[in-house]
Design a protein that fits this description.
By secondary structure, the chain is α/β, with parallel strands linked by helices. It is 45% helix and 9% strand. It has a single domain (44-252), classed as 3-Layer(aba) Sandwich (Rossmann fold), CATH 3.40.50.1110. The protein is built from eight helices and five strands.
């Protein structure tokens, strides 16, 4: 009789456990498998690559038309932050840079590899010799690429410009700070990138300029007044950028 009651007790404790394990097994079967993020090749940031977005292709064609029509003296090369001179920065652009004969080669979402494609297979900057090209690129690489990859991508752009237009001066800007706090992961990565690309300054044809601190508060934070999303500039932010580079661009464009 004792053995009988012992067996009953074991069953009482065992059955719920087995049921729970079966339920857990069913849940695991139902759960979709996790997709692994494809790893990018080591040379992704230095390999020219176009984008299939319709708006991107159309913007590229318009850039080619503007270049043929105007033979611009000053080029602004970059991503959405540069393209923003046509939005929040439009007033400053019209007042300060349009009179210089500048055109905007900023494309939202561009990474270093996309700029490289535009300047090679895309045939931007062909048929004329600009006085100066200002570059600010790399923030869109900061999520997926290493410090070395991003720095190599920026260096490849500078070297391509120097080869393609040896009489064109390059104003290479440090990649702007991003993220509200000083310890933001991508901001810290870009600080290291800027240290590396600063060495591209040759004292004559390539000038490196870091204006990032001008956007920051005293405690190192970014304010929404300057960068509403802690990445893209407000009209006030574009005013800060314009103040920081206008005279330098005029000097280099002589």
């Amino acid at each position: 009789m004792l053995r009988f009651w012992l067996c009953c007790a074991v069953l009482l404790f065992t059955i719920p456990s087995l049921v729970a394990q079966q339920d857990k097994s069913k849940d695991q079967q139902k759960a979709p498998p996790k997709k692994e993020q494809p790893k990018e090749p080591a040379d992704v940031a230095v390999t020219p690559k176009d984008r299939k977005d319709k708006w991107w292709q159309e913007r590229h064609e318009k850039v080619l038309e503007k270049e043929k029509a105007g033979s611009p003296k000053v080029l602004f090369i970059g991503d959405s932050i540069t393209q923003g001179w046509e939005g929040a920065g439009k007033k400053e652009w019209e007042k300060r840079f349009a009179p210089m004969g500048a055109i905007n080669l900023g494309f939202s979402g561009d990474r270093t590899q996309h700029v490289l494609w535009r300047l090679t297979e895309g045939h931007e900057m062909e048929g004329f010799v600009p006085k100066v090209a200002m570059i600010m690129i790399g923030t869109n690489n900061s999520g997926n690429n290493s410090v070395d990859q991003i720095a190599d991508g920026i260096e490849a752009i500078v070297k391509l410009l120097r080869k393609k237009h040896p009489r064109t001066k390059v104003l290479l800007l440090a990649v702007f700070p991003r993220g509200e706090k000083p310890d933001h992961v991508q901001r810290l990565k870009l600080i290291e990138v800027n240290k590396k690309i600063s060495k591209l300054d040759d004292g004559k044809w390539v000038t490196f300029l870091d204006i990032g601190d001008k956007f920051l508060s005293k405690d190192g934070t970014l304010s929404k007044e300057i960068m509403p999303d802690f990445l893209h500039l407000s009209d006030k932010g574009y005013g800060i950028w314009a103040d920081a580079v206008e005279e330098k661009l005029k000097e280099m464009a002589k």
